[in-house]
Amino acid sequence: MNLFPGYLLIKRLYAKYRYEIYKKLKHFFSVCRRIMPGWQKWTYCNGLKTADYNTWREIWHNTSRIYKENDYKMLKFFSCSEDPKIIINYLKFFIPTFETYENIYISTLARHARNTTMLTEIMNNFEHIQNR
Fold first, then answer.
1. How far apart are CA 20 and CA 77, in angstroms?
2. Would the pTM count as exceeding 0.70?
3. d(Cα 69, Cα 71) in Å, to the nearest integer?
4. Residue 32 falls in which region: left (phi positive, over 0), alpha (psi -120 to 50) or beta
5. Can you say whether the dihedral through the CA atoms of 95, 52, 10, 8 is positive or negative?
6. Other C-beta atoms lying within 10 Å of the C-beta of residue 127
7. Confidence category of residue 10, pLDDT binned at 50, 70, 90
8. Which of 29, 70, 77, 122 has fewest C-beta within 10 Å?
9. Residue in 53, 128, 130 with CA at minimum distance from that of residue 86
């Protein structure tokens, strides 16, 4: 079901320029500037979807210096990656140090609920993630 006539066009453009979005995000963080609040979700989620682990980690470190560590909203954006290995590492090693760990875990599950491969990876690693 199309929500509006240009839906398919936007979907095609997004698929075509996804890598460009990722490159812009990487460049943006090379100069370490804050992203305006209205653009944070779109920028982080779309930029981190295709990021490799090294880029994801570099952005994590840059972001943790810019934003408050207890900013739950910012932490959720890092679960946008489509790479199961990044998500498992995120849940195992990066997130357990935060008080809002359970909320982030649940929001990560919800974000990837339609992706059976990702959901299976998260559930298969549940014991390892939970015991951190």
1. 18
2. no
3. 6
4. left
5. negative
6. 8
7. low
8. 70
9. 53
Structure tokens at 127: 């014991």
> Using CA atoms, how far apart are residues 120 and 55, in angstroms rounded to an integer?
24
Distant-in-sequence contacts of 118-123, Cβ < 8 A, 24+ apart? 118/82, 118/84, 118/87, 121/84, 121/87, 121/88, 122/84, 122/87, 122/88, 122/91
Note the pLDDT of residue 90. Answer: 87
Q: Which two tokens stand for residue 40?
A: 């944070």
What percent of the chain is predicted at pLDDT more than 70?
69
What's the burial of 4, exposed, middle or buried (CB within 10 Å: 0-12/13-18/19+)? exposed
Residue 54's alpha-carbon distances to 17, 34, 61, 86, in angstroms, are: 21, 20, 11, 10
Residue written as token pair 């790479």: 83
Query: What's the one-letter identity of residue 5?
Result: P
